[in-house]
Design brief:
rod-shaped; alpha/beta; single chain; five-stranded mixed β-sheet
Length: about 130
């Protein structure tokens, strides 16, 4: 009889506390060690006309059409070649302002690619997207 009573008393109970502690420690570890992305975007704000009429400052106009074609001062140019062409034109006129005008159908990829290329070449540029 005693053996039967002892067996019922010796039944083990599952203690969940150590498992919960481990889960919380792992959660804290992954939160602390996670890499948070800092994505930056384009600041597309309306800018005032920096080249008023009658001014002697030259403007280098880069136009992007709806088919992602690129034009510098009316001449068709490959999108990849724009930063080098702009640098050449800025060598001739160092105070020249670079202005990019994109039509409403222009892809965002083309505008962002051009902005990245201009930033890599350290060329200040203003971007205007037509509505």
């Amino acid at each position: 009889m005693r053996r039967q009573l002892r067996r019922r008393e010796d039944e083990a109970a599952v203690d969940m506390t150590p498992m919960l502690d481990l889960v919380f420690i792992m959660l804290i570890f992954f939160i602390v060690s996670a890499v948070f992305l800092n994505e930056s975007g384009l600041a597309l704000a309306e800018t005032p006309n920096t080249n008023p009429p009658g001014s002697s400052v030259q403007t280098i106009l880069v136009q992007l059409d709806a088919l992602d074609g690129a034009f510098i001062d009316g001449t068709r140019v490959n999108l990849i070649a724009i930063p080098s062409r702009v640098q050449t034109l800025r060598a001739q006129a160092p105070e020249a302002i670079v202005s990019v005008h994109a039509q409403s159908g222009t892809s965002v990829d083309a505008v962002v690619f051009l902005k990245d290329q201009m930033d890599a070449a350290s060329i200040p540029v203003s971007i205007k997207v037509q509505k």
